[in-house]
Predict the structure.
Amino acid sequence: MTEVATDQLQVWVDQDLCTGDGLCVQYAPEVFEFDVDGLAYVKGPDGELRQAPQSRVAVPEHLRLEVIDSAKECPGECIHVVRGGDDVEVAGPDAQD
């Protein structure tokens, strides 16, 4: 169980770059949602949108692949997936390939 805690992923959306394309919402609607401004935001386990800039939420274990794919496929390159333990970006515009 310790491995899961250190390998926990977090995700956030840079609304300044969001194109409103919606791929993220299609891939992982439990994590991403549009607000009235037409931009995607992350939402917590309580279902509430996190609207503060760079607000992060934990990526549910069963949605890791979908969230990573969202970051890789996002046309706005605005989704950042980072490891919770060391803040290294594993998917998104700042990820090392």
Remarks:
- The longest helix spans residues 64-73.
